[in-house]
Amino acid sequence: GNSVTQMEGPVTLSEEAFLTINCTYTATGYPSLFWYVQYPGEGLQLLLKATKADDKGSNKGFEATYRKETTSFHLEKGSVQVSDSAVYFCALSLLIQGAQKLVFGQGTRLTINP
Amino acid sequence: DSGVTQTPKHLITATGQRVTLRCSPRSGDLSVYWYQQSLDQGLQFLIQYYNGEERAKGNILERFSAQQFPDLHSELNLSSLELGDSALYFCASSVGHSGSTGELFFGEGSRLTVL
Fold first, then answer.
1. C-beta separation of A93 from A102 below 8 A
2. pLDDT per residue over B34-46, tens digit each?
């Protein structure tokens, strides 16, 4: 089946540290891949996306590269800030029987300490 | 602002009661999704509608039902409420057709507390 596995949280880092949140997927087909972020008290919002192998999505200093050979889409940021504290969700999207189906990982809670 | 509007933002009710959550999708989006988010179970997909028709069903209880109306807004009905139904309920919308990449736009959620 189609699934997304994320690095278990919570993750706690100091400001300016390097961040990696691992994400791997299994899919029957060629999915699009996404990272969504949920700040405290808010809904999810798209952080970045990649629609085909070797694409790199980037936004707000975050990056993730679609690696088909390792079925991975790891999220990275070179220097995190307190304002990056949030829950991060990795997701894939596939067209199945004419409908877009989105599958989410379980989410990784990130806390950045000053 | 995602363009997806959910009402009410907060709702407190008692066990056994019934509530209706409402969602207006982004202008032009045909597909609406409902998700439940609780502390211990993460984000659970409930149901998806596309242009008024049910497209996919997830872990939606029989006590819950949803519909999408001709103007594309959607309602999620929760009945015979139990304490365990307390959660954040999110609506999301997308363009929905096969040409899209599947990106979802989420509302801010409706927080349901069952006492």
1. yes
2. 999 987 657 888 9
Q: List, for residues A61-83, the tens digit of each pLDDT value.
A: 999 999 999 999 999 999 999 99
- How large is the C-alpha radius of gyration of chain A? 14
Q: Which residues, 6+ apart, have CB-to-CB distance to A76 below 8 Å?
A: A18, A19, A20, A21, A62, A63, A64
Tell me the nearest-neighbour CA distance from B109 into chain A, angstroms.
Answer: 6
Residues B48, A99: C-beta atoms closer than 8 Å: yes
CA A65 to centroid of chain Cα atoms: 10
- On chain B, the residues whose CB falls within 8 A of the CB of A34 are 102-103
Q: What distance in Å separates the CA atoms of residue A10 and residue B15, rounded to the nearest whole number?
A: 32
What SS3 class is residue B61? coil
CA distance to partner chain B, nearest, from residue A74 (Å): 18
Cβ neighbours around A97 below 10 Å, total: 7
